[in-house]
Every structure is written in structure tokens, then in C-alpha cells.
Amino acid sequence: MSVTGGTDGSTGPSDDARTQGSLRTQRSQTHERTPGDAGSDGGTTAALASRSRSPFLSVPQHLLWALLIPLLSTVAGWSGQYPHGLWLAAPLALGTVCAAGFIAGGRWHRPGAATLACVAACALVLFAGPALYDLYAKRVGDQLDAMVTQTGQRRNAKGTTMETCTVIDTSGAVHRISEQQNCSGQFKPGQRVILYKDPAGLLDPYIEEPDQQALDTTGLGISAALFAVTSGALLYGGQRRR
Question: Cβ atoms within 10 A of the Cβ of 150, count?
């Protein structure tokens, strides 16, 4: 009787101890988290966020400015070729040059790159407009034979003297041509010319001598070089910002 009772008494406590130990082990395994697990969760969240982000925002900022500034300068030069287009071209050009100086000089602290970008962007406005006007007129414009009937000069609102030409085309229409439309004193009354008319009717007619119908490659080349200089200066300033 004593042996049986002693065996039952010693077996009960050992079973309880083993049960409690296994429960504590399971709890510790359930609540324990390794640094690798937390890192993997964070990496997954970052990956999902990067996938949902717009591709435009993932482009380096200096690349965007290096493309945007010369493009806006070109647009400003082109818009100035339209009648009353200076109301848009002047503030757009001024804002673009100021933006180039602020970004490269103020934010990136590269005064040399800022100066070069501003000068090149300003020159690009002056060269790109006439070069693109010549390209558009000779490639897209309707070509008509015309004759210069009168030449003269006029003063604009600022008091500047400018050359003018009066031209009549084969349809009998009379056109008054300014320096912006390639009348710079090189034509004489009675001289035959080629008149290029905008099919959309938005740009003023453009005239040229019959033997000068080739594109203005010099103006286009200078414009392309200024575009590259403006973009290169901003790329340099953005990569070596302080």
C-alpha cells in the first residue's frame, strides 16, 4: 500500500512541471520576433511604396531641371514669333532665367553653373525663336510668288527704327512685312520674293529671296548648342551641389 501510494504521489508533480514548461516554451516562441523578420516587413513596405510611386518622381531632380529650363526657353522664343506673343514670351523667358539662377545658385550653391545656365537660357530665347520660325515657314508654310512694291522704315513704341516691306502676292493680297518676318533692308522695290504663309493663319507671312530657300542651319546649330550648354550647366550643378 505504501509503495503504490508513494509512486502515485511522485508521478503527479513531475507531469505538471513538464506541462507548464511546454506552455512557457510555446508562449515564448509565439511572442518572440527576430530583427530579420522586422527588417523583412519594413523592406516589403518600402518596396510596395516604391512601386506605387509615380515614375516621374523617381527621376533625379537635376535631370528634370536640365530638361525643363531649356525647353521653356525654347517655348518662350517660339511664342515671341506670334503676333502679340511677346506678352507671353517676355514673362516666360524672365521666369525661366530666374528659375535657373535660383535652382543652381540658391539651392545647389553652384554660382558658376547658375551664371552659365542663365546666360545660355537667355541667349536661347533670342536664337531659337527666329530659327524655328524659319524652319516652320519653309517646311510647313504655303509657298507663293510675290513682289516687293515698297520698302521703308517705321518706329515702334520704344522709338526704335525698324525696316518694313510691302509685298503683293499672285492672288493680289497685300502684306506688310516687318524685320521679324525677314525684312531687314535687303529687298528693293520691284524685286521678286518667295512668300511663306502659315496654313493655320496664326503666324505672319515670312519672305525670302528665291535663291535663299535653304534652312537657316546656322541659327538652328547655335540654338542646339545653347540648349546643350543650358542643360549641361544644370546637370553639372545638380551633380556637384553643395
Answer: 13
Return the higher-pLDDT residue of 185 and 160.
185
Q: How big is the chain by its Cα radius of gyration, in Å?
A: 38
Quick one: 94 and 207 in the same domain? no
Q: Tell me the residue ranges of DSSP E strands in 157-200.
A: 161-169, 174-178, 192-197
| 13-22, 32-41, 157-166, range with the lowest pLDDT | 32-41
CA dihedral 9, 13, 14, 15 (to 10 degrees): 100
Quote the domain boundaries for residue 210.
Answer: 137-215
Question: Which of 65, 64, 60, 56 minimizes the C-alpha distance to 103?
Answer: 65
Cα–Cα distance list, 172 to 75, 146, 147, 149, 176 (Å): 34, 9, 10, 12, 13
Backbone angles phi, psi at 212, to 5 degrees: -125, 45
Same domain assignment for residues 152 and 210:
yes
Assign residue 147 the CATH number of its domain.
2.40.50.100
- Grid cell, residue 136, equals 516652320
Residues 128 and 188 in one domain: no
For the chain, the domain total comes to: 2
Q: How many CB atoms lie within 10 A of CB 58?
A: 8
pTM, entire model: 0.72
Beta bridge partner(s), residue 151: 165
Position 22 scores a pLDDT of: 59
Task: Give the whole-number percent of the chain exceeding pLDDT 70.
Answer: 74
Q: Smallest Cα–Cα separation from 77: which of 212, 222, 198, 209?
A: 222
Q: What is the pLDDT of residues 23-53, one digit of tens each?
A: 565 555 555 555 444 444 545 554 444 444 5
